[in-house]
Amino acid sequence: MGHGGENRWEAEIPASFLRLRQVHGKRLVEVASGLGQEEGDGWLFSRPVAVWAAVGIADCLPVALFSRETGRAAIVHCGYRGLAAGILESGAEELCQGPTFGKTGSFLAWLGPCIGPCCYQVQEDVASSFMDVPAALASHPDSGWWLDLRRVARSRIAAYGGEIAGIVDECTRCHPKLYHSYRRAGAVIGRQFLIGRLVRK
Ligand SMILES: [Zn+2]
User: Are 181 and 173 in contact (CB under 8 A)?
Assistant: First the structure.
């Protein structure tokens, strides 16, 4: 995972990578050579291809998925709209190819930095999408609802049979020296990228 705009990571970032036109939906695009900027919120790596692909993030949650059984991998961009639409379910289904979907341990997931529940105030209509994960919501009489995207994602991943392999448990808004944050800046002035490539060992 690279930090956009910070030179110290430059040596680890490939010279070019596929990008998506991200729309906060649930569609994953299969990585292939020669693609333009497709519309979607995740990349599916079903076989090794000699290209890198990326999702851009500026408070949403970046997630990487891998199935040992099928050898497939995915990287996805998860905001509240994508989580509500089922982007992680799409990713798990694509990885598991049916037979192992929902089976415990069928895939691994890594969660990157995103806006934390400390900083993510949402309206009731957003909160209402996640009432099935009570631990992800806090409500205060004066300030309404506060949402924990990571807890929503962890709950969904567990429900689809995934196991958490790693988490960067940091709030993008609270760490200005490390991360870009849409909520802190009030606009997208920079973003993190989750970059992936599937290689055969
Ligand atoms: Zn915070």
Answer: yes
CA of 173 to the centre of ligand 1 (A): 5
Q: Specify if 119 maps to a domain.
A: no
- The 10s digit of each residue's pLDDT in 5-17 is 444 555 567 888 9
Please give the distance, rounded to the nearest whole angstrom, from the Cα atom of residue 44 to the centre of ligand 1. Answer: 30
Report pLDDT digits (tens) over 55-67: 999 999 999 999 9
**Ligand 1 center from residue 116 Cα (angstroms):** 5
Q: Which domain holds residue 68?
A: 2-114+149-196
pLDDT at 5: 47
| CATH number assigned to the domain comprising residue 191 | 3.60.140.10
**H/E segment holding residue 196:** strand 192-196
| Structural domain total, the chain | 1
CA distance 158 to 188: 31
